[in-house]
Design a protein that fits this description.
The chain has 618 residues and is mainly α. The protein has two domains: 367 residues, no CATH class; 243 residues, Rossmann fold, CATH 3.40.50. The chain is 60% helix and 6% strand. The protein contains 24 helices and eight strands. Helix 1 packs parallel to helix 14, helix 3 packs parallel to helix 14 and helix 6 crosses helix 9.
């Protein structure tokens, strides 16, 4: 086997195409809807190169497991560790409350290359930082690579090459079919991060080596293959999007296209892309991939906006370029080329200890930078332990009272738990609270019609089994939600639910709180850090946000609207602050302190309606 197979400048150029597509997609997914397939191209390249190295060393009887794994660690870990240290420092300074807690958990999983197994659940956390603001979200790809590297040498060394030639294509077909099946069942998010779903992509590269595809093709065939390959990739960039059933069978299109280009060295296309600037970007591709996402995530967290303005975009480009070059020049290249393992581990072991220590200390440092209580920065005090689950029902207010109501809805019902607790204790009634993320949890709503993950659907179904009998027994049901963003299907489901329930049951629909154009908790933190931020907390609601709701309410005499939109709490001079304390958890949810004050402010108005309803029901 020719040594040139291991290093080809055109492969660096393919890496450049892959990383640039990912960066463009992560800057703005609307510019290149399928840009994320650059990751899949990387996986095919990895399978191709690693298989090439292992097979060559196997033929020469020079393969050693220890040497292979140490070389992989040298290649990936030093720059990766430095990234984790950098991200931990920045997050410790910038992040607040649950955002920071979630980061620490992702960090722990990233250190042991397990983030791909943890992230499917983490990115479903409605109360954590959004996915595009999660600095270590991209580490799942490195976790998948490292897990694959653990398995591939064992298979290639201990199984005969002839057997692998036929087993690998079968594995590709079976695992691709399995992935497509799981996606059809609603586990698209789980499959996206799954090693099993990505193994076919690596193995496509392996098959090219095992079958010697490049050696069997003429230059004419290579020209055709490279043209076909780049066409498949370009069409994938344009036609595949986040809404597609991806990975699965769709992933074979760009991956086979990448395989065609890899096996077409010397073709016209491979020669065209083998220009120095493109090759150089390819050489920096690992560092670019490592650094581009955290830079974007931190800037989005800071600006609270997915689309960065011109100044932040320019800053991001400069930061990514500088950090990538520094990482490549002074970390990635020196350690990759380091011959003495002892010198490497002299660096490696203290760095890991430093990172783990910082991970443990970061919580106390984070709290000291911005001292405030969990009631302000965390949704836990709202009753989060039962939100989107049904492990136990929250009962608050005067728990000894015979007067009772049921609170259901989405997270905008959840943040009313302290609100009703304050009023219930003062006026001797109790309430049960069962809430769910994003959707109003009425039994008539079909969550499978949404883009929800399998985890969300499973939690919904578990909650509904407990919720339905409680709804049937409840004489008074309070429904609260994010009315501004409710889709047509959800509104129809609410209408159908109100139509189905007994006329003897009384329903109270509660207006939502004002939405703010900025996150006040972040504003306070950034202000304390001396960072320039804009204090813009205007109410983003419009008059027509309730029109669809009012059309439904007026159809049913047993449905009441509790209108608190003109609450005196929202008219405070320093709103959303009160005596220096923030009343919101983020831009649309009250925190525990704000919810309690809201209850005290609207106690009288709430009880005028409730007293009337209690008389009818009890």
């Amino acid at each position: 086997m020719n040594q040139k197979r291991i290093y080809r400048i055109d492969i660096q150029s393919i890496r450049a195409i892959a990383v640039l597509s990912v960066v463009i997609f992560h800057f703005n997914k609307f510019l290149l809807p399928g840009g994320f397939i650059g990751v899949d191209i990387f996986f095919v390249i990895s399978g191709y190169l690693i298989t090439s190295i292992i097979i060559k060393q196997k033929e020469n009887n020079s393969f050693r497991f220890k040497k292979f794994y140490i070389n992989r660690i040298k290649r990936i870990v030093p720059a990766y560790l430095f990234l984790l240290l950098f991200a931990t420092v920045c997050t410790t300074i910038l992040f607040t409350g649950k955002d920071f807690s979630n980061f620490r958990t992702i960090l722990a999983n990233s250190i042991i290359f397990n983030s791909n197994n943890y992230l499917p659940a983490a990115v479903n956390d409605y109360f954590g930082a959004r996915a595009e603001q999660t600095p270590l979200l991209h580490t799942w790809t490195l976790a998948v690579e490292m897990q694959f590297y653990l398995m591939l040498p064992i298979v290639l060394i201990f199984l005969p090459g002839r057997l692998n030639k036929y087993i690998f294509p079968i594995i590709i077909i079976l695992l691709t079919a399995y992935t497509a099946y799981k996606i059809r069942l609603g586990d698209k998010q789980g499959m996206y991060f799954s090693l099993l779903a990505r193994i076919p992509e690596f193995l496509l590269g392996s098959v090219a080596i095992l079958w010697g595809l490049e050696e069997k093709t003429s230059i004419r065939i290579r020209n055709i293959l490279s043209l076909t390959g780049i066409t498949a990739i370009v069409f994938s960039f344009i036609l595949i999007s986040e809404a597609s059933d991806f990975p699965g069978f769709l992933s074979l299109i760009p991956c086979v296209g990448s395989l065609f280009i890899l096996t077409s060295s010397g073709s016209w296309f491979n020669r065209i892309i083998s220009k120095k600037p493109i090759v150089y970007i390819g050489e920096l591709s690992y560092s670019i991939y490592l650094w581009h996402w955290p830079v974007l995530a931190f800037l989005r967290y800071y600006s609270d906006s997915y689309i960065l303005n011109l100044n932040l975009t320019i800053f991001a480009l400069i930061a990514i370029a500088c950090l990538s070059w520094l990482s490549y020049k002074f970390i990635e290249t020196p350690f990759k080329d380091l011959k003495e393992n002892r010198k490497f581990f002299i660096f490696f072991i203290p760095s890991v200890i430093c990172l783990i220590s910082l991970g443990f200390l970061s919580k106390s440092i984070n709290n000291k930078i911005f001292i405030t209580s969990d009631e302000v920065t965390s949704p836990n005090a709202l009753g989060l332990e039962n939100h989107s689950k049904a492990d136990r029902i929250i009962i608050r207010g005067d728990t000894s009272s015979a007067k009772e109501l049921l609170l259901i809805g989405d997270s905008h019902a959840l943040h009313l738990n302290p609100f009703f607790d304050v009023i219930g204790r003062a006026h001797n009634f109790k309430f049960r609270s069962i809430t769910y993320d994003t959707f109003i949890n009425v039994p008539t709503f079909d969550i499978k019609s949404t883009q929800s993950s399998k985890i969300q659907i499973d939690n919904w179904n578990k909650q509904q089994k407990i919720l339905k009998p409680i709804i049937n027994k409840s004489k008074i049901i309070v429904i609260a939600g994010l009315w501004k963003d409710k889709g047509q299907e959800e509104i129809k489901s609410l209408d159908f639910f109100l139509k189905k329930i007994s006329k003897n049951q009384q329903i109270i629909i509660v207006s939502d709180v004002p939405h703010l154009s900025g996150n006040p908790i972040k504003y306070e933190r950034f202000k304390n850090l001396g960072l320039p931020v804009i204090n813009s907390f205007n109410d983003l609601y419009h008059k027509d946000d309730y029109e669809r709701l009012f059309m439904i309410i007026k159809k049913y005499p047993n449905v009441h609207f509790l209108d608190l939109r003109n609450s005196k709490l929202f008219k405070l001079k320093d709103f959303p602050f009160y005596n220096g304390t923030c009343l919101y958890y983020d831009n649309s949810h009250l925190n525990a302190i704000g919810s309690k004050l809201y209850g005290k402010a609207e106690d009288k108005k709430v009880m005028i309606l409730l007293d009337q309803i209690f008389k009818q029901c009890l």
